[in-house]
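Entry 12.
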Amino acid sequence: MASASSSSLSISSSSTLVESKAPRQTTAVSPQCVTLPTLPPLPVQSQTRPLKTNAHCRKIARNVMAMATGEAPVEVATTELPEFVKTVQESWDKVEDKYAVSSLAVAGVVALWASTGMISAIDRLPLIPGILEVVGIGYTGWFAYKNLIFRPDREALVKKIKDTYKEIIGSS
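Predicted 3D structure (tokens):
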């Protein structure tokens, strides 16, 4: 049985492949030849990608030429920096010991990372998160009762917040 099926699947060589011509597909399949399905055509690449790349390269070349001649590139629009960025730049320029400020910033990031790790470790303990949640709710209630319910207490709290703000920022 195996010999009968192997004889029907034998592939005969064709001289058309040697002559670099595409073999003709016949609709009737002979018992000695096996026809293979044709491959689908190659996908057509869209022409928009090379155009975008070429346009980008032309834009870069134009900017380089403009910078070499001392002219400002046409597409470059002078945009104003936000007020916050200007304030930060001015404050950074006023700092005398930039190394110390940078070190403090790095130490602050490390401390924040460490405290996050510590809080997540405490959160994994069985009873501690529930107890801390009850303590937080209790303190919030006490703070609201002491500072927010009555008008004189609210005014004293607002005054204390404004004084602390002025002390930190400085009087203008």
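Annotation: Residues 51 and 131 are 64 Å apart (CA to CA). Residues 1-10, 12-20 have pLDDT under 50 and may be disordered.
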